[in-house]
User: Fold this.
Amino acid sequence: MRSIYNGLCINCKGFISDDRLLKWGICERCLGDIEDVKNFRELLNVLIEHGKLYFAKDLLSFQSRFSDFSKFFKKAVGQRMWSLQEAWAKRIILGRSFSIVAPTGVGKTVLGIVSALYFATKENKKSYIIVPTALLVQQVVDKLRFFSERLNVSPVVLYYHGALRDSEKREVLENTAKGCFNILVTTDRFLIDHFDIVRGNTFDFVFVDDVDSFLKSPKNIDKILLILGFDEKIITSAFNLLDLVKEANRLRRIGKSPDELLKKIESIRGRIEQYKRNGKMGLLVVSGATMRAKRTKRIQLFHELLDFQIGFKPEFLRNIKDFYMEAEATIEEQVLKIIKVFGGGCLLFVPSTAGKEQAIRLDEYLRAHGIKSKVYMKMDEKLLENFQSGEYDVLIGVASFRSPLARGIDLPERIRYVIFAGVPRLEIKLSWDEYSPSKILTLLKNIREFLDDKAQEKATQLINNIRRILPLNRRTLDLIRSAVGQGLKLEGFEGYVCNLILNARQFLKEAITPEVVAKISQSKEVSLKRKDGEFYLIVADPTAYVQASGRASRLFAGGITRGASILLVDDEKAFYSLKRRLSFMMVDVSWIKFNTKIASKWFEKIDEDRKIIQDIKAGKIVKRIKDFIKTALLVVESPTKARTISKFFGKPSKRRIGGLTVFEVSMGEFMLNIVASMGHIYDLVIENGFHGVKVEEKRFVPIYDFINKCRKCGEQFSGLEFCPKCKSTDFQSKKDIVEALRALALEVNYIFIATDPDIEGEKIAYDIYCSLYPLNRRIERLEFHEITKKAFIQAIKRRRNINFRMVEAQIVRRIEDRWIGFELSRKLWIKFRNYRLSAGRVQTPVLGWIIDRTLGARKKKKVLFATLSNNLRVSFENPTLPFPQNKLADSFKDLRAKITGLEEEERVINPPPPYTTDTMLRDASTKLNFSASKAMMLAQDLFEMGLCTYHRTDATTVSTTGINVAREYLQDKYPLMLSPKRYAMEGAHECIRPTRPIDVQQLKNLISLGLLRFPKKLTHEHLQLYDLIFTRFITSQMKAARVLYQKFRVTLDGNETSVEHPIKIIEDGFNLLAPIKLAQPVHEGEYTLKDAKMVSLPAVSLFKEGEVIALMKERGIGRPSTYSKIISTILDRRYVITVKNKLVSTKLGLRVYEYLSSNFTDYVSEETTRRLESIIDAIEQGRVDYQEVLRNLYNEILRIREEHPSQAAYPY
Assistant:
């Protein structure tokens, strides 16, 4: 037993030990002996026998219903559910509306049909199945009849489609109006045409098959909500809520407070929740993803009223070989050869710069040579059916993200490969004379990198402002065009847009200079083309390439289909640009020079996948393939981290469980449900045990309770029913998060915990593990030191168990902090009669250093600063002069300085190693004036957004991945300067480094281009810290510089100082990226003084926060996870204040330190603290028993009590 948790017994929600949580989740008070219990059902039956079944009865009900449903399904279908079907069935049984995004062949429709039958025959509930076509209506009805026969049930099924006789249609309509049915099956058109008849019914379960078809009429959403039990008044309230949310977001963007609106939003949401609790709302399941589900107001009703969003098709899942070959003079012949070798199932794309005309020419050429091809320029379901049936082998379209052939087509069994007859690229007119905001935006994005710094900032501002107003409707565009052309003044939103366009036009007019045009023409990535006297930019279109090539690799029941992309390179610059831009967007594009033999082997694998899909559709496939995809709950700490990971695999759908947002996305093998725990969930209680620790004869067991946060004052506490600071009972509790996680744990096959890779993250993982284990035992830990797609996929493959040694190390650190902190704080409360004071083992010596430095800084020294006639600046401390100091201004010209002992030496200057936490904080403090807490917060954001590796580390080690990042950057920028170095240190951690070969200017440009998007806004301060980290890391992987130094002495009237400085770079190295400041060389001789002044300065300089942290690292106290917290604590307690970014001790700090150091020196000394840190490290490494350490600490606290008895109570 390592811990005791309050609120986690699944039956009484009381205290329970972790060892019982890791058995059945039932505490001793509910059931003493659980050793003989064999399964969960038996456990619940025992509780019933003893009359002690409390909250677990809901779990029993769920288990019973799911077991019943599983048997029902197996009897109906003839086989058990697949893993995905089980997950969806659990959601249905739990009463959760949701969207199914999954490939063909995994039984979505079958599950909907069986669910309707189950509700009809087992629970006497009404169901409605909506499909897109009359044919599907009949197929569903046939399955309902077939399954009913197998189940020996006779539900009343009504169905309606165009093939029915008129008398049959009238009968169906009459019975629908009367509600004489259990299950209704119709097309979505029926809902539009006969809604007045359907509306008389309230449905318990609605299953929409093919949501994209259903959403062709957006008002279907209102209709569905009404028949699920929502009234028009509550739907109107939800509409009003969406307006308020939109306005609150607008106020935030312009820097105004939305607080009043947020109160209204909370009030309306409260009314909606109350309405849902009071009524019996039906359950909605929609199947299929959508390309239409732009976040329109009506579609957002699902989120506000049913807690889910319509899903999206995964677009970044691809298993494609990306081949390229040089285009020949006759590109048509090349295309024909490829198609003749590899056959049908091909999509052929021409660049948008070539347009429809080129597509038509290719089509005519191919058909003339016996290829069954067709141009596809608009959505045409009949043409797709003909392509799928083999009537056509090739469809031809334009490579553009708007192209109907490049988006929305999902035919995994038919589309095998994609050919690009030229590099996908855009043609942008280089002119300011434009009215369309979207065209102006495109131009601004693509010329930004060629402008000077000031113009770049202005361009960025315009880009951001234009993005906020898009898209615009046709009426607004016409109005603005007319106003700009005629010089008319518009008001309101149109006026704002009009002014924005005028500003952008004026900016472009000034920015597009001959110098900028010359820079563009010299670019490696952008081409210039002159046409009809105008310049046009030619840039690669990576979005078009990803979307178009992705048609050949789609999700199916066995994973992700293999496909091929063959690119004919007709523009080297555009290809270079495409490769670079894709490398920033995706990590799984690796270009292969086309070779028929290699390609043919890959096509064999492509066709294996198509055969499997055909077998799945024919019902021949084996269970191993069909049950390939599993569901998993992925728990991380923060919403930013959750959003970053979810976007690796396309646009996630969202749903809400309790107060928790769930991001749902498919990564092929797993359907991930990603949630954030919001950091630590539990903390030590205050009142129970010995400062929150149960002391037994042989063990020390911490007692944890949910962390609460006061809504009134922000205080964080646990184990109390009120805020200890302001006594408010209005607080948020992490209990809600645990309940939501437990609800999710019931749904999924696996649980992955991906908290941070240190002892704090491991403890959070262990707490979540214990919380969820009674409900789902398949729990594993993911560890990654950078949040990138590649690192995440590797972590999924290398899943591990919880590291209990790390957990024990954190337990000791937290208990030690609590015990010594509470005991010493009590002494301070009594001594100073101030309950805000606190003490800690690490913070006390740190406070002592700052006090010593503050006292030292109060002493002064005289410094003479002099500028010699050769412009050399030198200084002399406490000099003696032949005249009074107040005569210096008049007399310094009489002085003579001599330079002697001049030596020159060549030195090899190595670059500094990459950052660790302490060195990063030091430089962030000294170079950027960031506090430690701000620097850590910014570094946390950079880590969670996938820009930098984990920022709490004391290792300089560089991984192979890190070396490859440096190699890729340097090969492009400084190809001769690469000098890979490991800087290896013991341990699993890595240095702090960038995750991609993108410097800060490239980062800004990629954000402006829209190629990189982040879940959180990158501020100027984020970019400053990123630049610091990037430069430090890249220089660490560069060659040393050979530098010429001068050393000499300067004497001035008996005062002497030594000087050495670099004067010349002999051989370049890392200095190309991080310049070494050079001084002018000097010569021996005597010099007059140009200037001199005497200044009184502190004898020693005050500490900056980063310097204190560097000292903590040097002296071995504190760790990367605690550095900034220690500084923050002594600042919060007002022991220290900041003056011009320097730390100055206060009178209170001095008094507290003197009291602690004189009375408790054995417990707060630097040596004691250093020794304890080493012991905690030893626990983590498995060399020391943590219980023995706790016993020693406990005895130490008892000695403090004996030596200094006090009776101070807790401050509440």
Notes: The chain has 44 helices and 39 strands.
